[in-house]
Structures are given as structure tokens and as C-alpha cells.
Amino acid sequence: MKYNVSLFSLLLDILLSLLASLMSILVVRWVSEPIPGFTFLVLIWMGASAAGSTAGIILSGCSKDVKKYANVRSIARVIYALAVKESLLILVLVFGLVKIPTATLSVLAVLIDTTLSVGTLSYLRLAARLLANPEDVGVQSAKKTALVAGTSLVAVHMAEDLEKEGFDVVGLLTRQESMSGRVISDYVVYYCRTDADLEKLKWRLGGVDAIFFPRSDAETDPGNNTVQEDHPSPQRDGMSFAGHVVKRGFDVALSGILLLVFSPVIGLCAYYVRKEDGGPALFSQKRIGRGGKPFMIYKFRTMKVDAEAQGGPALYAGEEDPRLTRVGKFLRAHHLDELPQLWNVLRGDMSFIGYRPERQFYIDRILQYNTRYRYLYQIRPGVTSYATLYNGYTDTMDKMLTRLDMDLYYLRNHSIGFDLKVLGLTFLSIVSGKKF
Predict the structure, then answer these.
(1) In angstroms, how far is CA 142 from the centroid of its own chain?
(2) CA dist list (Å): 15 to 89, 205, 298, 331
(3) Are 300 and 273 within 8 A, CB to CB?
């Protein structure tokens, strides 16, 4: 995985530093009596913060480490950069350019500023480290999934042994309805009494490779006591109804806001796409979405009008794809071609986070190798996905199958928290210059 040094990293560091300064001065105002000329005070404080942040970040070179990973060296550079900023803020306070009522409040402002600045910039690098280790993600998502029958100590020990052997044990099976939804030693208990129940569970889990039966289990051997650990289910089989409501509400609200905010950018993109060769600004294509139903996905056209006139469907071959237009290459490099998909999200065809929707032509070929693709139809496809972060564009069948493993892993584990993580990492990868 390669990252390009870009202005985005520098600007993001400065922005986070400025936000920390703003929060610190607002906290001082909140805990103190009214401060005369507070607006002017804030302007001086933020101006000093901007100057100190920019100087410190450039001198230390800490923004260059965002693209790599969080280590002692990168954090040391962050501290060095922020020491420059805090020194300037202290000088501003000492010389009375910013007049805070008491010395205690002045110290409080500097301490809050330092803590928030170090915390946010360090967290940014820690998050970048997650993107720098795609091999771990691939190993986890490619693991064979398994269920263990029973809820006894024997079953739990078998599950733990299977984990050590490389399986992803997604739960325990029981015929006792009262045990359904409990968690035993981090394993969710699923109630299955009939083959139909088991088939429904397989759908919820995105398929299961194997079911293991211990030699002795509490449900058949009264001498072996069932482990009783009553914790709320972490919903490893998918989101709760409330979670889906929150997710859809988030999709509608954010897509509507972004359509308004980015309307000038959308207009400019459409203008330049049409200007280059006179063709249509938008590109629409039939994809398969939730429930296996087709829908039209919208993007800015990045290829020549007759890109697939000969030879039928063809996968994107990267930046050197000869079908790309000059404007299209720029749009893809900065992910601006995806902006029209905000309309798909608002309509309900897609979500911000899901799996990347595919054409029926390629789905048919994937199904020849792995029939589990159909399990993805339970959720809306997404503008971005867990798999896209680590697997990038798929231009071979091997990459498609790897992506499917990651999509099924997302299906088994997706939650509001998981979605927020993917959304945050997507933003981080874009501002860090990551190509996918």
C-alpha cells in the first residue's frame, strides 16, 4: 500500500491543531466570568495558533508521517511541532496580546490546547496504521467460518481450539430457546431447532463453512453443566432493527446535506466532463442491489463515450487505462466521479457503507467460484466498503473473490460502530492520497 505525500496531510494537521485551540479558548470562556472583547481575543488566539501550528508542522515534518504509521518517531515529531505552537501561545499570553482574566485560566487554556492537539494528531496517525496493514485484514476475512454445537464447557473449549487452528468461530448452536442471544466466552449462542432455522442462520452469517459437534455436550449429556453467562448479544449476525433505522436516517441526512454543499463542485465537474469531448456528463449503469434487484448507479463519466463499444464489459485497468479521458483521470484520482452516487444514497438504492455493487455479468462469474455472493443481497450496497479500503479496485477474479471474503466478513460483523470506522478510514485514505 503506497501513500503520496500531499498538501492534504499538512492542511489536515493544521486544521486539527486549530480545532484544539478553538476548543481550549471556548472552555476557558465557559468556566470564567464574561471576558471583555472576547471576540477579538479569539481572533488573536487563533491567529497565533495558526502561525505556530504551520511553523511547527513544517519545521518538524510531522505531516509526512501520516501516510506511514504511528511509531515513536512520528509521535515525537508531533510533540516537537506542537511545542512550537504552544511556545508561541505562551508568548502571546505573557506579552498580554491575549488577556485571560487569571493565570490559572491561562494555564488551563494551554493545557487543554496541548492535550487535544497531541491527542487528535496522534490518533490520526494511529488510524493511518490500520490502513498500513492490509495483510492482517485479508487473513481475518479469509478465515473459514465455523459453528460449534452446544453450550457446554466442552463446546466452548472446542471453539477456543478451533480459533487457535485458524477458524473464525461465529457462534454456538443450541436447542434451548432460553439460551438464545446469550454470550458464552465471547461466543454468541444461536437457537436452531430445525433445518429451516439453521438455513436462516446461515443467511444471517453470510454462510458457514463447517459445524463441529463435540463428543459430549450438556444438551445430550446431563452430567456436563451448561455454562451460564447472560450478557446482551453484540449482534454479530448483523444490525438490530434500531441500528438499521439509525443507519438509514444517517444516509438520508448526510446525502441530502452533501448534495447541497457539493452542488457547486458537482456543477463544475459536469461542465468540464462535457467540455472535453461533448459527451454526457453522467454515466449510468445497471447494478444489482438489495434483494437482488437491479438499479441504475450514477457517476461522472470518466471514460470515452464508446469505452465498451467493442468487446463487451471490461474492468477498470487503473490509471493507465487507455479508455480514460483527461478529465476522467483527474476525477477518479480524487474520487470526485463518485459524487452523483449521493443521489443513489438519498433514493435508497445504496448506503454510504456496504459492499460495492456489481454488474450481473460479473456476479454470474463470481457465483461459479463462490455461491455465497447471494448473501450480500440482504443489505444495501455502499458508496464505499470495508473491502474497498484494503482490496482496492478489482480487476481480476482473484481480487473479486478476496473482496467477497471481506464483504462477507463485514456482513457478519457490521454495526453502527463498524460503519463509522469504515467511513472514517475512507476519509483518512482520501486525504492521505491513497489510491483505490
Answers:
(1) 19
(2) 16, 41, 32, 25
(3) yes
Q: Which residues of 328-337 are buried (b: 16+ CB within 10 A; e: fewer)?
A: beebbeeebb
Burial 394-428 (b: 16+ CB within 10 A, else e): beeeeebebbbbbbbbbbbbbbbeebebbbebbeb
Q: How many CA atoms are closer than 13 Å to the CA of 7, on its beta-carbon side?
A: 0
Q: Which residues pair with 265 in a beta bridge?
A: none
Domain annotation for the chain: domains and CATH numbers? 7-132 (no CATH), 143-212 (3.40.50.720), 241-431 (no CATH)
Is the whole-model pTM more than 0.85?
Answer: no
Q: Around Cβ 49, how many Cβ atoms within 10 Å?
A: 26
Q: What is the CA radius of gyration of the chain?
A: 26
Question: Could you tell me how far CA 271 lies from the centroid of its own chain?
Answer: 31
Give residue-wise pLDDT tens across range 241-278.
Answer: 788 889 999 999 999 999 998 899 999 999 999 998 88
CA distance 402 to 422: 18
The half-sphere exposure of 24 on its side-chain side, counting CA atoms within 13 A, is 26
* Alpha-carbon span 279 to 274, nearest angstrom: 5
Rounded to 5 degrees, φ, ψ at 188 are: -75, 140
pLDDT beyond 90 at 6: no
| Strand stretches in 209-334, DSSP E | 210-212, 282-288, 294-300
Cell reading at 249: 436516517
The Cα angle at residue 165 between residues 160 and 168, in degrees rounded to 5: 65
Residue type, 387: A
16, containing H or E segment: helix 7-31
Q: How far is CA 194 from the centre of its chain?
A: 37
* Cα separation, 158 vs 143, whole angstroms: 17
pLDDT in tens, 280-332: 999 899 999 998 999 999 999 988 877 665 555 656 655 666 778 888 888 88
| Single-letter amino acid code for the residue at 140 | Q
Q: Is 352 helix (H, G, I), strand (E, B) or coil?
A: strand
Which amino acid belongs to residue 185?
S
